Predict the structure.
Amino acid sequence: QVQLAESGGGLVQAGGSLRLSCAASGLLFGFYTMGWFRQAPGKEREFVADTITWGDGSTNYADSVKGRFTISRDNVKNTVYLQMSSLKPEDTAVYYCAAAGPGREFDYWGQGTQVTVSS
């Protein structure tokens, strides 16, 4: 059974930093694209970043977080991270970790972790 467990959310002032972690189990982690999404109150869930393990191992970011957030993965610890810096109040959301098998959409999701950025 695939399980994704996020941690590291919390309350931070604008301009601050947080690091989210997502520990994965029940899957061949090294073969999965791992991503972060977020959902703010009253809004749809949106893509934040992902990291692809095959090919050139590229990473992708939403325009709204480029230059401020960094996604990384540890294929030994089966963990993906999201380092968030220069946080803004508009980054406030529940952040979800997700996994996608080769050639598939994101079909495994964590329960989410709340990030609140105060102004």
The radius of gyration is 14 Å.
